[in-house]
Amino acid sequence: MTGLAILGSTGSIGRQTLEVVTALDDRFAVVALASGHASTALEEQLAEYPGAVAWCPDGPPSGLSTERWAPGGLVELATLDGVELVVVATTGMAALPAVIAALESGRRVALANKETLVTGGHLVAAALAARGGDPLEVLRPVDSEHSAIWQCLVGERLDTVRRLVLTASGGPFRGRGAQALGGVTPEEALSHPTWRMGPKITVDSATLVNKAFEVIEARWLYRLPYSKIDAVIHPQSVVHSLVEFADGSYKAQLGLPDMKLPIQYALTHPERLASPARHGDPVDWGRLEFEALAPGEYPSYDTVRAAAELGGNRGTVVNAADESAVAAFLEGRIGFDRISDVIDEAVARWGTDEEPGLDAIVGLDAEVRDVLDRELGAAGRR
Ligand code: MG
Question: What is the value of pTM for the model shown?
Answer without folding.
Answer: 0.95
